[in-house]
Structures are given as C-alpha cells and as structure tokens.
Write a structure and sequence with these properties.
The protein is mainly β and 193 residues long. Helices cover 13% and strands 42% of the residues. The protein binds zinc ion (ZN).
Length: 193
C-alpha cells in the first residue's frame, strides 16, 4: 500500500496549484468596514428606552472628556449647555459614533464562474452565485475581522457580505479563510475610508 494515497496526492496538488496561482497574482489591500465604535454622549442625558438623547443637558458634565482615545477619531468633547431640545454634540442621537476601517492583505477574485477556475468555489451551487461578487481570501488569523465586517472595499469598490466567511485548511492546518461579498449598485461612489 502506498504511503500517500491518491486522494491526498490530488488534494495536495490542487492546493499547491492554487498557491502558485495566488502568489503569481500578489496580494492586494482590502479595506474592511467594521461596526462603528460608540460611546454615550457625555453632554446630554441618555434615554435608554428610546435609545436616543432626552434633549436635556447633563449638568454633571463639567470637565472636557476625550472620546475614541487612540483612534483616528479621537477628540475632545467640551461641555456645551443647551436649552433647546437638540443636543449640539450628538445631534439628538444620544451617542457618538466613530467608523472603524481595517486594511488587510488579501487575494480577491471577481465573479469567478467556472468551477475549474478556483477550487475554492466548489461550494457555490451552480447558478446560485450573484453577479458582481468577489471572493476574498485572507490569512486564517483574520477570520474574526472578516466575520465582523459589515462591508468592504475591494479594488476600491464598495461590497457587502453575501454569505459568512469560512475557514479552509491544508493538511489539518487552518491556513486561510474565504469571504464572499457582492458589489452594491449605487454605493460604490462612497469611497470614504
Ligand atoms: Zn448629546
């Protein structure tokens, strides 16, 4: 009996072929859009039932505070009393939000249609894949990031998740994960990241 059976040999050859394909393309930078950071507005009283500002100044707020410390959105909020109904700091939302973007190195494949093109698309039932979809392949360590992302920019194009990412392994090692995204018409003009 041979030491390495045919099935394993085939899998290995397939994986190596794919690896060579990936390396020949080179990784690109994909920007993941992660859920916003949020803090309760220090300037007004929060209504947790309505999940918005009560429209009442927080009289306990006396000294400036720094929000989103250590991020690009770090800023100082100064107490700003107000009489009219809308808080000038959070504009009535009761919370302050900061967008979170994370750049990662990835391999991406737009609308791969032929199953032979890449073995990673074998999970997609024929005819089920939408147009304008992209598969993003990244290091398995970044699985959580990919899982949490609500959108992404691939080649500068705005895309949203089509299905949850999965992890793929080679010889029992978790090596990479795959995420599926689709381009969203009319949203790709928003390249603010
Ligand atoms: Zn406020």
């Amino acid at each position: 009996m041979p030491l390495v059976n045919t099935k394993i040999k085939k899998q290995y050859t397939k994986a190596i072929k794919q690896l060579i394909k990936d390396f020949s393309r080179g990784p690109q930078t994909v920007v993941l859009v992660l859920p916003d950071l949020e803090v309760t507005c220090p300037n007004c009283l929060y209504n947790s039932l309505d999940k918005s500002s009560t429209g009442v100044f927080n009289t306990n707020f006396a000294a400036p505070v720094v929000v989103f410390t250590g991020t690009v959105n770090q800023r100082t909020i100064n107490p700003t009393s107000f009489n009219r109904s809308r808080c000038p700091v959070c504009y009535g939302k009761g919370k302050l939000f900061a967008p979170v973007r994370q750049s990662i190195q990835a391999y991406s494949y737009w609308s791969p249609n032929a199953p032979s093109e890449d073995s990673d698309f074998r999970d997609i039932p024929a005819g089920r894949a939408p147009n304008n979809f992209v598969v993003v392949k990244i290091n398995a360590e970044n699985y959580r990031l990919l899982y949490k992302s609500t959108a992404a920019y691939v080649n500068g194009i705005y895309v949203e998740p089509w299905r949850p990412p999965i992890i793929r392994g080679l010889a029992g090692e978790k090596t990479l994960c795959l995420g599926w995204f689709t381009a969203v018409q009319g949203k790709d003009i928003n390249t603010k990241y």
